[in-house]
């Protein structure tokens, strides 16, 4: 039996290198020799705090980039040697922090030569989250790229709170590409110029003492649609002050106690907004976004990674996140360093990428 090295959380607060079986891909799947994977907040919740872990050991890394090593029967459009990126979803054998991984064809894309494997590893989870949030959870009409006419609500002010986050960057890009022209982004000032280059029309310092007034001034009225990329108690409270009656706000789960993107020991995380923590008026609809369920939307399952993202990348009209690369020391040491970086809240406007091979 052939095996390979993987990095897993083996108990709360502990990660280790383990050996796992190198399986052959079943029908409709591909075996990928992994070059890079990403560490995101969900990895830290699992590895550092032991949250959302059903069994130990649990492998880490939802994003993958590398080369196709073998294809299962029925796989079309990919051959051995193709450079690919993919999204690992929930099964252990599809996670990225290992030397080989198995991905469903529906979550694996061939990447253009113009895109490095490091950059490619930043894309899948955030792109899927942004697309699913906008065009499923918030109910905006599905765009067909390239967009030939503006959407019906093109002039609707849309607030992206925490837009410097990697998911916020893709949310802005997709809104701009779909023809929306009143995108209001809150972020640290160091991100403002870059967010405007992605398509934001107004950028506001999230620490501004006049935040509410600045958002309303940019909107010209109250906000009907918002995405909270942080989804902490304090960010929800701030957003609640600018939402109109009968508006909708998407919350990228989990909801965090306090005011930070990261969740330190002892602070609560919720996969549903507790009624006693809901700051919104009864007529405002909070929508809880669970990215791992995006394939329940059959159109997105069949098109998002197979057609839409490849087109946008081939045309060079969507930008990957900036890379913060961890490539020093052993694989375990690289993963531990990336976990500490993300968990400490030091990550800002970039994706923590670990070199695997």
From TrEMBL:
Source organism, top-level taxon: Eukaryota
Record-given protein name: GroES-like protein
């Amino acid at each position: 039996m052939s095996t390979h090295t993987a990095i897993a959380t083996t108990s709360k607060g502990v990660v280790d290198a383990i050996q796992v079986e190198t399986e052959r891909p079943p029908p409709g799947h591909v075996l990928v020799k992994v070059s890079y994977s990403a560490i995101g907040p969900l990895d830290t919740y699992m590895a550092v705090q032991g949250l959302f872990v059903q069994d130990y050991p649990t492998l880490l890394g939802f994003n993958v980039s590398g080369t196709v090593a073998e294809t299962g029967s029925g796989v079309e459009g990919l051959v051995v040697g193709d450079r690919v990126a993919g999204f690992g979803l929930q099964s252990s054998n599809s996670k990225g922090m290992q030397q080989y991984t198995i991905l469903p064809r529906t979550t694996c894309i061939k990447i253009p030569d113009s895109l490095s494997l490091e950059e490619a590893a930043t894309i899948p989870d955030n792109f899927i989250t942004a697309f699913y949030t906008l065009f499923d959870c918030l109910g905006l009409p599905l765009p067909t790229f390239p967009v030939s006419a503006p959407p019906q609500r093109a002039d609707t002010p849309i607030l992206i709170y925490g837009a410097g986050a990697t998911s916020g960057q893709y949310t802005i890009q997709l809104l701009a590409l779909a023809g929306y022209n009143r995108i209001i982004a809150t972020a640290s000032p160091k991100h403002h110029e870059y967010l405007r280059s992605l398509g934001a029309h107004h950028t506001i310092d999230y620490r501004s003492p006049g935040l509410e007034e600045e958002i309303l001034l940019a909107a010209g009225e109250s906000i009907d649609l918002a995405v909270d990329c942080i989804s902490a108690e304090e960010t929800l409270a701030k957003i609640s002050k600018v939402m109109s009656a009968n508006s909708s706000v998407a919350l990228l789960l989990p909801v965090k106690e306090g005011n930070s993107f990261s969740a330190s020991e002892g602070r609560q995380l919720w996969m549903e907004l507790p009624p006693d923590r809901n700051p919104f008026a009864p007529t405002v609809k909070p929508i809880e976004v669970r990215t791992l369920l995006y394939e329940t939307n059959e159109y997105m399952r069949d098109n998002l990674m197979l057609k839409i993202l490849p087109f946008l990348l081939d045309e060079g009209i969507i930008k990957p996140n900036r890379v913060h690369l961890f490539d020093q020391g052993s694989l375990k040491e690289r993963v531990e360093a990336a976990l500490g970086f993300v968990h400490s809240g030091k990550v800002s406007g970039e994706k923590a990428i670990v070199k695997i091979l």
